[in-house]
Structures are given as structure tokens and as C-alpha cells.
């Protein structure tokens, strides 16, 4: 009986030491692997960041671009006097802005679709 108790005690000591070593190794491995599983979202972005197109003058300073046609010389009683006249340069800037914004929105839509898959 005494021999069996001694063997059991030796077995417990060995398994106890082995378990302590394994536990310590497991804790160290978990600490080392922790940064791999916990990545801050502020450090990496999943969607690329694109520059917003510059606003055209017709949006930034509308009072200087959108002028009543009657103030530009002409008959004040005509139908044209109630209309707004815009220089072609500003119309082209608006067109380019709309095209660039559409492209930007499409980029984000595509990136969002890829991200959500």
C-alpha cells in the first residue's frame, strides 16, 4: 500500500509540474498572440479614404455666379429678366464636380460591397 501511495504521489508531482509548465507556456502564448486578434480599428481602415473633390465656385459663392439675366443688361420686362444667367466656365466646373462626386460615390459603393461579402 505504501508503494502505491508513493507512486501516486510521484505521479501527482510530475503531472503538477507538467501542468504548471503547460499553463505558463499557454499564458505566455496567449499574451504573445493577443495583438494578432485585437487590432484597433483606428490604426487600420478597411475602406480606402479618397479625397473629396473641391467645391466649384457656383456652390461656394452662388451670389457671384447665379445672376439674374435682367441685371446683365436687357429688357427688364422680358421673361429672361426672371431667369438666371451663368457663365459657361461655372457650368463646366459644376459638371466636373458632379462627375467626380459620382466617381467617388461609386468607389465607396464598390468598396462597401466587397467589405460586406
Indicate the topology.
Blueprint: H1 2-37, H2 57-60, H3 62-65, E1 67-68, E2 84-85, H4 88-116
Antiparallel strand pairs: 1-2
Query: On the 0-100 scale, what is the average pLDDT?
Result: 75
Q: Tally of extended strands?
A: 2
Query: Distance between the terminal alpha carbons, to the nearest Å?
Result: 66 Å
SSE string, helix = H, strand = E?
A: HHHEEH
Q: In percent terms, what proportion of residues is strand?
A: under 5%
Q: Structural class per helix/strand content?
A: mainly alpha
Cα-atom Rg, whole angstroms? 37 Å
Count of spatially separate domains: 2
Largest sheet: 2 strands, antiparallel
How many helices in DSSP terms? 4
3D shape: rod-shaped
Helix content: 55-70%
Uncertain runs are none
Give, in spatial order, the strands making up the sheet with the most strands. 1-2
Overview of the structural elements:
The protein has 117 residues and is mainly alpha-helical. The protein has 2 domains: 1-38; 49-117. 62% of the residues lie in helices and 3% in strands. The protein is built from 4 helices and 2 strands, in the order αααββα. It has helices spanning 2-37, 57-60, 62-65, 88-116; strands at 67-68, 84-85. The protein has a two-stranded antiparallel sheet with strand order 1-2. The longest helix has 36 residues, at 2-37.
Amino acid at each position: 500500500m505504501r508503494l502505491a501511495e508513493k507512486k501516486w504521489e510521484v505521479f501527482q508531482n510530475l503531472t503538477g509540474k507538467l501542468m504548471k509548465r503547460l499553463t505558463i507556456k499557454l499564458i505566455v502564448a496567449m499574451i504573445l498572440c493577443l495583438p494578432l486578434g485585437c487590432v484597433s480599428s483606428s490604426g487600420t481602415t478597411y475602406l480606402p479614404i479618397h479625397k473629396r473633390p473641391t467645391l466649384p465656385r457656383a456652390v461656394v459663392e452662388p451670389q457671384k455666379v447665379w445672376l439674374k439675366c435682367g441685371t446683365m443688361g436687357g429688357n427688364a420686362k422680358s421673361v429672361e429678366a426672371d431667369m438666371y444667367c451663368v457663365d459657361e466656365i461655372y457650368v463646366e466646373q459644376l459638371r466636373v464636380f458632379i462627375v467626380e462626386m459620382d466617381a467617388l460615390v461609386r468607389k465607396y459603393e464598390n468598396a462597401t460591397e466587397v467589405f460586406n461579402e
